[in-house]
Amino acid sequence: MTNQPGRLKRALRRLTADEEEVANAELRSETSAAGATAVDQCSVGSPVCVAGTLRAVVLRPLAGVPTLEAELYDGTGTVTLVWLGRRRIRGIDPGRTLVARGRLTRRDGQPTLFNPEYELRAVGA
User: Fold this and answer.
1) Which of 4, 44, 112, 114 has its CA 20 to 30 A from that of 62?
2) What is the average pLDDT across 86-105?
3) How far is it, in rounded angstroms, from Cα 111 to Cα 47?
């Protein structure tokens, strides 16, 4: 019964929070469970492991080379994933969750991973 006040407080917080706050909290929890670092805690120039949900996926040619870009959101921030020379990657779709690894850089002020290794998460996981 000593845990009851904490559980009640969390339940009350969930009831009063808006949908976006609840979704962000769930994403942060999933990020931690995947062993990933929160985007807002990642350092430029360092190898990172990030996890989250793809918000957008677009084909954007870069210097005449087909380039697939995806925006990964983890509840704390976004990182752009860029695959050079790719028009499409099966499974890389908006709404899909994944874990990505690579060296973090900045492009146009946005945290970016070029040609990251990635692991698709099961749908609904």
Assistant:
1) 44
2) 95
3) 12
- Quote the pLDDT of residue 7: 76
Q: How far apart are CA 62 and CA 69, in angstroms?
A: 10
Q: What is the pLDDT of residue 18?
A: 67
SS3 state of residue 95: coil
Report the number of secondary-structure helices (H) and strands (E) in the chain: 2, 6
Tell me, what's the pLDDT at 28?
Answer: 64
> Is the CB of residue 116 less than 8 Å from the CB of residue 81?
yes
Q: What domains does the chain contain, in order, with CATH numbers? A: 4-120 (2.40.50.140)
Rounded CA-CA distance 101/15 in Å is 35
The 10 Å Cβ neighbour count of residue 82 is 19
Q: What is the share, in percent, of the chain residues with pLDDT greater than 70?
A: 75
Using a cut of 0.70, tell me whether the model's pTM lies above it.
yes
CA angle 124, 43, 36 (to 5 degrees): 25
The set of residues, in sequence order, having a beta carbon less than 8 Å from that of 103 and lying 6+ positions away, is 45, 46, 47, 48, 113
